[in-house]
Fold this protein.
Amino acid sequence: MKITFGTALAVLALLMFNSCINNMTDNPLLTQSPNPHQAPQFDKIGSEHYKPAFEQAIAIGKAQIDSIVNNPAEPDFDNTILKLELAGKELGNVSTIFFNINSANTNDTIQQIALEVSPMLSEYSNDIILNQKLFQRVKQVYENRMQSGLNAEQLRLTEETYRGFARNGANLEGEARDQFREINKELSRLSLQFGQNVLAATNKYFLHVTDSAQLAGLPPFVVDAAASEAKERTLEGWVFTLQAPSYGPFMQYSDNRTLREKMWRAYNGKSLNDEYDNRENIKSIVTLRRQKAALLGYPTHAAYVLEENMAKDAATVNTFLGDLLAKTLPYAKKEVQEIQEYSAGKGNNDPLMPWDFNYWSEKYKNEKYAFNDELLKPYFRLENVEKAIFSLADTLFGLQFTPNPSIPVYHPDVKVYEVTEKGGRFLSLLYVDYFPRASKRGGAWMTSYREQHIVDGVEKRPFVSLVLNFTKPTQTSPSLLTFYEVTTLLHEFGHALHGMLAEGSYSTLTGTNVVRDFVELPSQIMENWATEKEFLKSFATHYQTGEAIPDELIDKIVNARNYLGGYQNVRQLSFGINDMAWHNLQDPSIVQDVVKFETEAIKPAQVLPTVDSVAISPSFSHIFAGGYSAGYYSYKWAEVLEADAFSLFKEKGIFNREVAQSFKENILSKGNLQDAAELYRNFRGRDPRPDALLEKFGMK
Ligand SMILES: [Zn+2]
């Protein structure tokens, strides 16, 4: 169930519905599209259409919910679960287009509308979640599900819909219900406060340098950025901040150990020893999360979260993290030792401290594995990379990509492909939007304008979109990608495959609508091809000379991938361990000292000396302000899945059709039709093996 539908007083909804019905015919967000495949009418949609479309679509959705609730017939799958799945379809369409455009091609008006419609949308979904009459119908279908002759898909949808309500407190009554709502309210306030504190603490600190001797070691791009930062603040000299683009390079390149320590302590003491202290917020958040879990009948917050995931329970996650830690720790220690010796050879007689590690490891990397992006880029012309990825999709899955310029786009930079199977069956539209512009947010993502589903027996194939921020072509040079960008494109394309190859009846259960610790499998597995010689050789030729990429460059790419594999693993594991320590607490009141609690929890994962009075938890927004509580392990989990899945390709051949076919049938096309662990076993014939990850990084 998409939580986008709602209900209200039937009268009000119908009034709104009627008053709006006249304009419906000319709003391109609500009228049927005359385009091929009914693609969105980007050529007709203007900013002025959004707000009225939202209002109308919400009214329609409310009326649909009311008609479910007020149906005198006994609740069954068709009149309740299916109707609910389809309710708010119009709102879904409007929201998808609007929020995708807000990310990829926004303007002041659109941003203003986003502010206005956000509360409308949360009210709408709250109205559904809290609708007792609706829930009673859902519950009745759920309880009779085994005697109702439902097929596997219908059964799954019924269970997922019921769970969506139950996990949001629909089964609670009386005082417990009020308490649950209070806790939710307080938790959103605290999370917001937590995030704002981290932001304020990050922005408050800066390192002001006026003596150019203190810039030693910093490359010109870092110095220039620091100078313009100073100028912006009307200060002399140079300013370094705790923002990633300033802090990261400073720690990597600054020769000044005292300043590195100062910066490191500031960074790792954020929201800890300043006016934006988050320690009490952490205690309140874990306590309230624990209480909420208890109301719903779970022993811990982790148990509540993990029930939904592939991992299922805290014991599995803790064993997973512990095993991987035991296996990678010796490598991490060896790597630290290697860096220590290297630095000693360069005259460093002090033991490596956390503020030394990035500095010396960067120097070591440059000496041992350096490959220059400028050297590689001429082999990665965007058009060639795109063609190579499409051709890989053809080799593996038999997909064809044909440009269709007659389909409207939201910006002239966007291109649309029709994706078909061998034999001509239309699978999907694929929009690609490669270049940065002021109206687009940073980063790279895959999204959909329509998810695959079937309605009234008619199949609707998906509209998938890839949005990236690659270097634009100029008058003299085409768009040449860095190696990182090539990997990014493969990653996002993997998500796109998951969306494009979906086969199911209900969009809630198809495509990328899968559990968090499973969703990155299709994307991360595609990244593996970027370091495969056979694949690189197939397309990476110099854009001017036509010469194939030299083996020596390919070797460098592969070696750099494995550099500090042990250390990076242990570092990620320590975050996951910290997260689980907080969220698997039976009794959060035992925590007196936040710093001490964290230090104890992550002690087994420390490979550098422990420093007093610092901690990562007070600024760990992922788990205290974002949605990653009891979920940080997912990053490692997904890496294990992809490494283990890809090892089958390594064994049978990276272009092997049968393996690819099985991956498509068992994983890519299945969405959330079955439990993720089952899907994985269907593909691999067994559970994932964590050793595959170690083998990938040469730690075996
Ligand atoms: Zn991803």
Observations:
- The pocket of zinc ion is lined by residues 491, 495, 520, 523 (CB under 6 Å).
- The first strand starts at residue 206 and ends at 209.
- The beta strands are 206-209, 238-241, 399-403, 415-421, 426-433, 445-450, 453-455, 458-460, 463-467.
